[in-house]
Amino acid sequence: MSYFNVNKTMTRILITADVHCGVGNKLDDCLWALSSMRQYAAENDIGVVAVLGDLFHDRVNLNIKVISEVAAFLDDARYKYDQDWLIFPGNHDMFMRHTWDVNSLKPIKRLITLIDDYGLVKIYGRRFRIIPFIQHEEIYMKVIDHIENETEGSDILLTHIGISNAMHNSCFLMQHWGLVNFNNTKFSKVFAGHFHCGQQFGNIYIPGSPIPFRFDEGMVPHGFYVLDVETDNVEFVDIKWRDGVQAPPDYITVSEADINDLDPTNANVRVILDNTKSRDELDDLRHHLESNGAVKISWMKAKEQEVAVPKESAAMEPDTLFEKFIDHDKPDGLSRDLLISLNKKVIDEAFSVSTEVDE
After folding, report:
1. Among the listed residues 301, 306, 293, 248, the one whose alpha carbon sits nearest the alpha carbon of residue 270
2. Mean pLDDT of all residues in 90-97
3. CATH homologous superfamily for 2-241?
4. Which of 66, 132, 227, 235 has the maximal Cβ count within 10 Å?
């Protein structure tokens, strides 16, 4: 068992996830989010920050500027702010899908408390179970069963995994999606990374990413949780709390008819067009939005509003989901039967590799 930050005057920890440093051209936005959380912790007598996976984004090629900037930030967090940042691998921090041995957190391990295996830590006297990301859900549930045999009633789980009854982004598609749930868990609370839209149901807390990265993550609060280990109180803090410091832009989708009622200040705006527009008409709409503070504007025809991946995807088998995808996209010049056959071979091969690793 690991013990750290034993300052007895502190009882609260800050919990975040899915910062994704290095995604797109958003490094400055990610560093803004990290700095906001570090400042909040410093101003509110919080000595431990837990990152529930996916501190970094690129699984294979970690940009030197990205790791240098993040290392400089964490150096300040540890030696100037006297904060412990506890971090474990999410799927984006892992170079290989089925092992934590090679991960992007090891180069910065002197600056953080790195947990790269499932285990137990004690923070301010409270027991926390840690399970980093596990690719195959059957294996994940076996680890849960093993850990719960040694779990005390007040233990809290920190993990990175998709949970079956959570609201999630359309980009999250995995085989056997519905296996992971905590309906009858022995843990007093579960904090999980992986989904980017923050939410809470029962004793499950998903902080989400501190900032949105795409349109299906916009128009909802983004921030972090603060947990008091003595009172068990959990508070969600919207990251826009920093007065005088502009947050990264939100992502807003709006119908053409509602444009005049929209406040697009500091937002990437996607407009659903009622019908085909001339270039002059689009320029007029763009000018209206930009003059009212929009950062970027994009267009979507009303018939394109249907999401390519249906809402019921979480309950579908991968082959059924793939069939719906190609029926929606209708790729030109490609055989539907051949695509379905190749997709099935890929799924079967991936499943067989995962089973071999488990055994």
Report:
1. 301
2. 94
3. Metallo-dependent phosphatases (3.60.21.10)
4. 132
Convert the pLDDT of each residue in 13-70 to its tens digit. Answer: 999 999 999 999 999 999 999 999 999 999 999 999 999 999 999 999 989 999 999 9
For 183-230, what is each residue's pLDDT tens digit? 889 999 999 999 999 999 999 999 999 999 999 899 999 999 999 999
Residue 234's pLDDT is what? 98
Taking the domains of the chain in order of start, what are their residue ranges? 2-241, 250-304, 316-358
Q: Provide the pLDDT for residue 183.
A: 86
Q: What is the mean pLDDT of the chain?
A: 86
Burial of 272 (0-12, 13-18, 19+ CB in 10 A): middle
Identify the residue whose tokens are 């996976």: 53
Q: Which residues contact 258 (CB under 8 A, 6 or more apart)?
A: none
At 26, list the tokens. Answer: 């958003």
DSSP character string of 74-127: HHHHHHTS--EEEE---GGGBSSTT-SSSBTTGGGGGGSEE--SSEEEEETTEE
pLDDT (0 to 100) of residue 336: 73
Q: What are the residues whose beta carbons fall under 8 Å from the beta carbon of 314, sequence distance 6 or more?
A: 164, 168, 177, 178
100 phi-psi bin (left φ>0, alpha ψ -120 to 50, beta other):
alpha
Mean pLDDT of 257-278: 93
The angle formed by the CA atoms of residues 317, 322 and 328, to the nearest 5 degrees, is 130
The owner of tokens 């859900």 is: 137
pLDDT of 241 above 70: no
Query: Helix, strand or coil for residue 254?
Result: strand
Strand pairing of 2-4 and 119-123? parallel
Which residues, 6+ apart, have CB-to-CB distance to 150 below 8 Å?
none
